[in-house]
Amino acid sequence: MENQSLDEITRRVSEMYDRFPYPSPEMGTKKLKELSNLLGIFSRETGFDFRGKRVLDAGTGTGHRLLEAALVMKETSFLAVDVSDRPLAIARATAEAEGLGNVEFRQFDLMTESSDLGRFDVVLCMGVLHHLADPQQGLSNLVRHLSDDGIIFLYVYGSHGSHERMRRKQIVSLLLGKDPSAFEHGIQIVKDLEFDSSMYGWNLNIEGESTKDSLFVDSYLNVHECLFESETLFKLIRGSGLDGFMTYGITVDGSGYLFETRLQATQQIPLHRTEMAKKLPTPLLTEGYENLNLLERYRLLDLLYQPNGYTLIGLRSGARNLFKPESRLLQNAIWVDDYS
């Protein structure tokens, strides 16, 4: 893909990841299981069967996360796309080394409206929308590839929990001066300041200086990123063509929580989750919470937990049948028409 055909922000982001592929410039043997774990937890919680499904991974990067999922889900067909050459080359080489035959790779710009990707049961767009020139347009383009009962997994940065990282990013920017593309200089500034990336979820447990450099670029030197909170997430979904969404989980610093809006959870899941009964322990606080609508509850959880990231599931109306009425997920679901 010729960079001249890209918008300016997409061109700069693409060139950044060509120089510092993410998550790692090394093929390596250490696996990143976050995506595989997420899909496994979702499948166990809902009964959703990924076998025989078509899955699009939009913005796969070096593929380290997707390929681990593909190794586990061998009866699922994956198409992995990215705008940048070098990360895709790493992903292809890793897949070939692993002998994976259920993943196809293609170069693709999410900001285009091309319809040649086909239709998918599941779309993954993890850690990508917040780097697009227009996240809503990018999401709208992806929704066009979603089946009528399809779901889309999104991971985006949260504004409430990103204050410290953004403060550090501004310090690095000021010391770096007028050439934000001088990444090597910026990396050394980050190291001299002894800024760590692991507290924000960038701890990938991969050895090597080149991998650490890629993490520093992604967390402190990224050329473009948007931050979200509940109200802007709702606006993002409302203009995308999706019928609704739910927050599946949040990250707070380096810890993950399943997202629960009910005061008392009836479904037992052996994982950490948000617990509003503990945050609001008195009858007065409980009464106030129970008087809120669901969007207002989302806002309150934002303010109390201050997430630095959200894992969302975007929904077509036909996907409603995937979830049991009493499940935490359907209880978390915000339907656009209910708040129009």
Please describe what this structure looks like.
By secondary structure, the chain is of the alpha/beta class. The chain has three domains: 155 residues, 3-Layer(aba) Sandwich (Rossmann fold), CATH 3.40.50; 58 residues, no CATH class; 90 residues, no CATH class. Strands 1, 2, 3, 4, 5, 6, 7, 8 and 9 form a nine-stranded mixed beta sheet that branches. Helix 6 crosses helix 7 and helix 7 packs across helix 8. It is globular and about 55 Å long. The model has no long low-confidence stretch (mean pLDDT 90).
Topology:
Blueprint: H1 8-19, H2 34-46, E1 54-58, H3 64-72, E2 77-82, H4 85-98, E3 103-107, E4 120-126, H5 135-143, E5 146-157, H6 163-176, H7 183-192, H8 209-220, H9 230-238, E6 244-252, E7 255-258, H10 276-279, H11 283-290, H12 294-305, E8 309-315, H13 328-332, E9 334-335
Helix pairs in contact: 2-3, 6-7, 7-8
